[in-house]
Amino acid sequence: MKTKLLTLLVLLVSCVVTAQNAINYKALIKDNVGNVLVSQPVTVQFTILEGSGMTSVYQEDHTTTTDANGIIILNIGEGNLQSGDYSTIDWSTDDHFLNVQIDSGSGLVDLGTTQFMAVPYALYAKTAGNAENVSGLEAIDEGNGIGWRIKDRDPNYYGNIGSFAIDLSFNDELSDVYGAVGPVANAFGRSTTASGTGSTAMGGYTTASGYFSTAMGFLTKAESLLSTAIGRYNVGGGDPSVWVGNDPLFEVGNGTNDLNRSNALTIYKTGYHLIESQVSGLRVNSANTGLIIDNAGATGIYVLGGSNYGLIINDAQQDGLVISDAQDDGMEVSAADEGARIIGGSVGVYASSSAAGNPDIILGGFNDGTNEGDDGIIASAPNISTSDIYLRSNDAIVMELDDDNVTNNNANFIIRNGSDTNVFTVDESGETTVTGILRIGTETIEDTGSNQLSVNASLIPDNDNAMRLGNASNRWVGVWAVDGTINTSDRREKKNINPIDYGLNEVLKMKPVSFNWKNSNDPDLKLGLIAQDLQLVVPEVVKSHTWELDETTNKLVEEPLDRLGVYYSDLIPVLIKAIQEQQDIIAKQDLKIKELTAESNQKDTALQSFDQRLKQVEALVGTNP
């Protein structure tokens, strides 16, 4: 019986058995009509081919029996050898392919040839043993617990690896200290030592001995808890396991040899920065902030022994000098002329208070026993007519009026023009006054007098079918329009469309009236309907409530109105229906009239015929007495 293999399981390489270097093969066996072969003896032949010429380098066969599900599981490399040597296959030099043939009793059936992909090359990786072809890590225990080091490294060149440590470093000299010798340590580079718990050493001949410390560069040492050292020949020092404020947290070494160690920069765990230089103590070339000293508990900047300038800020592109969070006075300047002249390429003066409620800048208000100087004034250059003042913020700009809440203060925000006229005013209650035309984009709003605003724009609600013009309590006297109002009536906007039942009967019940409005400046007589009367006839056209969105439940809630209104436009369909019904009555009456007229005409014709015949009879009687 001829068999075939399920296409999806022609070759399923699931794992590499490293102890035997075999390749796991799993397949489902079916016959030529798709029936699973259960508990069926089969012979499987594997041929490994190499290169584009498909040269056979190894062949074996297996005799096995399918299981209760028709599945076979075999190990390629452990079958009956037919040709070649499985252990000498060089997986690294060329492409390799697998040809599978199966015999279930009727001879071998070729199931095709498939290229080996990633899994077999793990066999190559296992045998790659030189430094130029390092392929992985090996777990080793040298007395401290299991750690991992690059395969085939000579242990005589390294100290005992720490537990859970990872050693990726290289060393070619006898040593008992190099490598990741601390617990959970990491070593990289050449001849580095990571001996502190959780430490990391990288670069060349660096040492990280402090707990969770990091040493980078050349011959640096990170000896303090949680410290980091970079550069070369740094000073180091500190307690390896206890946090001490005066120990280094970050060091940039610039020493020349082991006897002349030095730091260009040291940051201590207190936050203190030490810059050591024989030329400039600190030179900041920055396109943004030059130098910020924040939260200084005592002295923010202290320049001692300067034989020339104490402090020079030259050509700062953004912040020349920033003094922030000083406990008393951030900067005090006393001068006979200008208190300070600050010319910045980006920012002239930057001020920041340590407390959110305290002001960053105070103008005026100096208490000299008089009222002079009680006003803070900001002015552009008085000798330059084109000078401007800009306010710029990455967030809000807030002005607080009458912050001390003194009742007799006139706490207004006022913008005046060159003729000292208030063109924009906001008082303490928020009332805003604009003198002139208010322009929004290219549109304008102008006060044209007599309680009128001239608007040079269309008024459009920001939400469709959501806003109103006026309400039951505050009504417009009238709305003037050239073509009247337009009600949207597109079928696509409607649902539940049904014919109405109202018509002539309801129209006959309506009570048109004339009236005058009680509270109105217009005494003219009006015509209309009374909403209460109309509500008894056609309640749908009477506005008795509104639907408001409850922001708590996010649901619409019905709110009754204190005054009733009428949708006069909604009466039009009722009137149309009434006219249609009336027209139907008229049409029926017209038809009846036509029928009666025809009947009358028939009777007239018959009467005329009878009259003519009577005359003929009378004529005959007259001629024959």
Plain-language structure description:
The structure is a single chain. The protein has helices at 121-127, 504-509, 531-537, 571-623, and strands spanning 3-5, 13-17, 22-31, 41-50, 55-65, 71-76, 80-84, 96-103, 108-115, 137-141, 146-150, 166-167, 179-180, 186-187, 193-194, 200-201, 207-208, 214-215, 221-222, 228-232, 248-254, 263-268, 273-275, 292-294, 322-324, 350-352, 413-416, 422-426, 432-434, 437-440, 443-447, 453-455, 513-515, 526-528, 542-550, 555-566. The strands form 9 sheets. It has a 10-stranded mixed β-sheet with strand order 10-11-12-14-16-18-20-21-22-23, with no helix packed on it. Strand 2 (13-17) and strand 3 form a beta hairpin. The radius of gyration is 51 Å and the shape is flat. It folds into 5 domains: 3-125, Immunoglobulin-like, CATH 2.60.40; 136-275; 284-297 and 320-329 and 346-354, no CATH class; 413-455, no CATH class; 502-625, no CATH class. Helix content is 12%, strand content 28%. It contains 4 helices and 36 strands. By secondary structure, the chain is an alpha/beta fold. The model is unreliable at 1-20 and 127-134 (pLDDT under 50). It starts with a strand and ends with a helix.
